[in-house]
Design goal:
mainly alpha, 165 residues
Amino acid sequence: MKQKIIRIASVIMLLAVMTAVFFFSAEPADRSQETSDGFIFKVVSVFYPKVKTMTEKQWNDFLEKVSNPVRKLAHFSIYGLMGVFSILSIISYRHPKYGIRCIFAWLVCILYAVSDEIHQFFSAGRSCEFRDMLIDSSGALLGIVVMTGICIIVRKRVEKRENRR
């Protein structure tokens, strides 16, 4: 029963992440850049309050340096989350083996990354980037590997505790 709840919740979260990615990808380039810049400002403001006193030129110079890495990290992170929820959606099944479940979860994420980049191609000012597909797939793989490792450790501890009884 608990596994079924986790599976259903994971599928719902996976679909929520996929939906968020879809809507971010549908944004025209200028709005996407504004969203990223606003996010960067909020995060930097927390760690470096003096950012609020920067001149427009200083802020633009700063953004020029950090915007692209932050955007790529966002790709990596959101697909990492997608990897976590994709593996949680199928890991509770006993068969097939972990490796096959991981490959299946990763393929789901890769296919979504490819479809996402194709979708972006049709959004104003956006492009389809192979590099982004690689970043997305890498993030998903890391999420899958980390979550699988956690699940294996938890399962072994539960089995060990049950064997003591």
